[in-house]
TrEMBL record:
This is Phosphoribosylglycinamide formyltransferase. InterPro entries: Formyl_transf_N, Formyl_transf_N_sf, GART. The record marks 140 as: Raises pKa of active site His. GO terms for biological process: 'de novo' IMP biosynthetic process. It comes from Listeria fleischmannii FSL S10-1203. It catalyses: N(1)-(5-phospho-beta-D-ribosyl)glycinamide + (6R)-10-formyltetrahydrofolate = N(2)-formyl-N(1)-(5-phospho-beta-D-ribosyl)glycinamide + (6S)-5,6,7,8-tetrahydrofolate + H(+). Pathway: Purine metabolism; IMP biosynthesis via de novo pathway; N(2)-formyl-N(1)-(5-phospho-D-ribosyl)glycinamide from N(1)-(5-phospho-D-ribosyl)glycinamide (10-formyl THF route): step 1/1. The active site is at 104 (proton donor). Catalyzes the transfer of a formyl group from 10-formyltetrahydrofolate to 5-phospho-ribosyl-glycinamide (GAR), producing 5-phospho-ribosyl-N-formylglycinamide (FGAR) and tetrahydrofolate.
């Protein structure tokens, strides 16, 4: 079974997945931002990486159709979003029903979208965490697969909480992806 990892940034969650024993092969990385560090990380780990920039396509459907062709050429069965900062559209959603998973740095449904860590701190929340969920057409609105909570300490800053979240993500996400592709989670 092959998976594709979609990422837009530094690629720390991709790297955690690639270095873990998740079972399925990471067939490729799809990135939407030129110069993103995930492209270098993929190269160093020997994982083919492809850059698809939305501005190079006349529509979102054309953009996703080009990505879909690459996924099919590589027999990809699962799409794993790892810091991919773009909503998935109908073309991919219809082609991979219940086979696209995302990791979000909050206990959904609280704090969807960008800046979830800062939102939790600004709200005075006493806990937050990470959530893996199936992707639908909304922003972090798909069915929750698994989550893990962590306390927010009184002295917590955005930087310290982000570091704690990343530490959990790098262990949590590979385990969830492994169980998902093995059919042990639904």
């Amino acid at each position: 079974m092959k998976i594709a990892v979609f990422a837009s940034g530094t690629g720390t969650n991709f790297e955690a997945l690639a270095k873990s024993e998740i079972g399925p092969k990471i067939a490729l990385v799809i990135c939407d931002k030129a110069g993103a560090k995930v492209l270098d990380k993929a190269s160093k780990l020997g994982v083919p990486a492809f850059l698809f920039r939305p501005k190079d396509y006349p529509s979102k459907a054309d953009f996703e159709t080009a990505i879909l062709a690459e996924l099919r050429a590589n027999d990809v069965e699962w799409i794993v979003l790892a810091g991919y900062m773009r909503l998935i559209g109908e073309t991919l959603l219809l082609s991979y029903p219940n086979h696209i998973v995302n990791l979000h740095p909050s206990l959904l449904p609280k704090y969807p979208g960008k800046d979830a860590i800062l939102q939790a701190l600004s709200d005075g929340a006493h806990e937050t965490g990470v959530t893996a969920h199936f992707v639908d057409a909304g922003m972090d609105t798909g069915p929750v697969i698994a989550s893990e909570s962590i306390p927010i300490e009184p002295h917590e800053t955005e930087e310290t909480l982000t570091a704690k979240i990343h530490e959990i993500e790098h262990i949590f996400y590979p385990k969830v992806v492994k169980k998902l592709v093995e059919g042990k989670l639904k």
